[in-house]
Amino acid sequence: MDDLTARTRTTTPDRWSAPPLIVIKINFDGALFVNEWESGIGIVARDSAVSCLVWLSRRLPKCLPPELVEAMAAREALSIAQRLHWRRIILEGDCLSLIQKLQSGREDHSASGPITSDIFQLLSLFNSASYSFVRRSGNSVAHSLARFSFGLQEGAGALPPTALAHLLSDSSHSNE
């Protein structure tokens, strides 16, 4: 990461907002399915024009602690961004404890510590990378992808119907 990298952004918006030009915003979320003893992750990446660039919905075969699932979603989001050679990103999620761990920059000795370490390594690969907390209402597309995950589904552009309504709502708010 270069000197221009913003490591923190402390805001608590209620709605999703578009990133600046030439920046990709990647929202992530985790979900628990206690009755099935499984978890799910959802990821959506959008640009300043609010276009959906890529999305992922994945069911995990274990019911894991919530912060661990969120950390796994964040790591997967960064892996996708790195694989697609994006250089300037904003990583945004609704797990305040995870965002606070990232903001602290300290070694994490919790169950999510190894994944948090991976996240820091991945963040260092970008020219500009920041992370921010957003309330669940501002993370609805990623949440819907995590909540309705079945196996592994991913794509570019068109979202599944379960997430599309949330994207349309975000798009209308970003133009206000």
From TrEMBL:
Pfam families: RVT_3 (PF13456). It comes from the Eukaryota. Transmembrane segments: none annotated. GO terms for molecular function: nucleic acid binding; RNA-DNA hybrid ribonuclease activity. PANTHER family: BNAC02G40300D PROTEIN, POLYNUCLEOTIDYL TRANSFERASE, RIBONUCLEASE H-LIKE SUPERFAMILY PROTEIN. Residues 27-148 form the RNase H type-1 domain. This is RNase H type-1 domain-containing protein. It comes from Sesamum radiatum (Black benniseed). InterPro entries: RNase_H-like_dom_plant, RNase_H-like_EbsB-rel, RNaseH-like_sf, RNaseH_domain, RNaseH_sf.
